[in-house]
Write a structure and sequence with these properties.
337 residues; alpha/beta; Rossmann fold; 2 domains; 7% strand
Amino acid sequence: MFRRRAPYAKEAQNVLAAVLRGVSSGDFQKLLADGLAHAQTLEKADLQRTNLQDAYLAPRGPAGTLKKADFYRADLSGASLTGARAQEAVYYQARLQDTIFKGADLRKASFFEADLSGANFTSALLDGASFAGARNIPVELTIHLDDELKYCSTVPAPAPAERAAKSQHVFLSAPSVRTPAQDSIYERIGELLSRYGLVVDSLPRREYPSSGVLAEVGRRLAGCAEVIVLGLQSEGSDQDAPPAGPTPWTHLEAGMAYGQGLPLLIIREPGVCGGAFDDVINGHRTYVIELGEAWDGPDVRAAIGSWLEDVSKGGRHGVPEDTVCRDAGLGRSDQPA
């Protein structure tokens, strides 16, 4: 009956998977990824290297299943597999940051070399699942792992251990050399953050230690909950001073922040691109907005709202995005301060 009503269902599923191997994160990507859940079955589905960020992947209907599905190197960061029937599924080297597996059947699944930062396995069935080589295994699961890191309990997995309260510090990364207009933008952002109880931290060039600068950057990031990176245009100055604009340290600080799993808000001036300011980095817990756009535009509101949602996960904030956009008062760098 199903084949008569949808004779090309399998082909459509394969097309969705193919597109999701090359599409960047966003509304279109999520729409395609959510569409996979409507398949009659995803058993043995080839979902290798697909971008499934923030998708809802629990197959709908009594016949839906992800049994033996292959998620090799797929990105399921922020995705929900709540209640999914995914026995023997393969998550080899998959990115599973903040993925929700609540109540899922994951018996005999393989998480070999997967990144499980923030993954939630509450009430999931994990008997026989292998976590060999996995990164950032949730601490509440470790008591049920044998010497080969195989899960050895038939009891549903416990809820995540209670997390410590997040810091109220935000690391603000920006070039040390700025034009007066760019300095005004920097100060406005600092004022906006402090207005909502966030403390700004940074590492200006004058405070660089004589050795071990990377260690000092790491120390400061370790005390912060979120990071904002400013990409400012290079502008010439007089011969006795270096030009304003991005420096290698700006890119380095952004990379170190992402490596520590901190929510990133990238704010760039028009024309700034490459490295930390490339469009392709936009994704899970990383938000890119262009400073030249109107701050009351829908794209800007969505990016700031998403970043603030990550900020508020610690239970400290809950700033309405419209309020932030209204109060920011930011615009192009050539506008009056």
